[in-house]
Design brief:
107 residues; mainly alpha; two-stranded parallel ribbon; 11% strand
Length: 107
């Protein structure tokens, strides 16, 4: 039987553990925190959240969120964070060009 892992999506904090588990060949699901809300009135701790997430997953009461395949994620990160393929930053180059253009316009 294949080992299954469920990771609750919280901001961007889910990414490193998700990517590591996925790289090790595990079946990893990213689940929306809204879909696995804990019961009202119960104390909320990380340990209880983990137990609750396991129970919900065992009963197949959740479904995975969409996580693009690794090549698409790399492309999205590249465009989102302004990195260039050569290792420098595209954003920094754009800022320099913009400043030069503003200097030429004002003179």
């Amino acid at each position: 039987m294949e080992q299954q892992e469920r990771v609750e999506a919280t901001s961007d904090y889910w990414k490193p553990p998700f990517y590591v588990l996925e790289a090790h060949g595990l079946d990893v699901w990213l689940v929306n925190a809204k879909n696995v809300k804990h019961l009202a009135g119960w104390p909320k701790t990380d340990r209880l959240d983990a137990v609750w997430l396991c129970k919900v997953a065992e009963r197949q009461m959740i479904r995975p969120s969409f996580v693009p395949p690794p090549p698409i994620r790399r492309l999205r990160d590249l465009t989102r964070y302004g990195l260039s393929w050569s290792g420098g930053t595209l954003f920094a180059a754009m800022v320099r060009r913009s400043r030069r253009r503003d200097v030429h316009r004002s003179s």
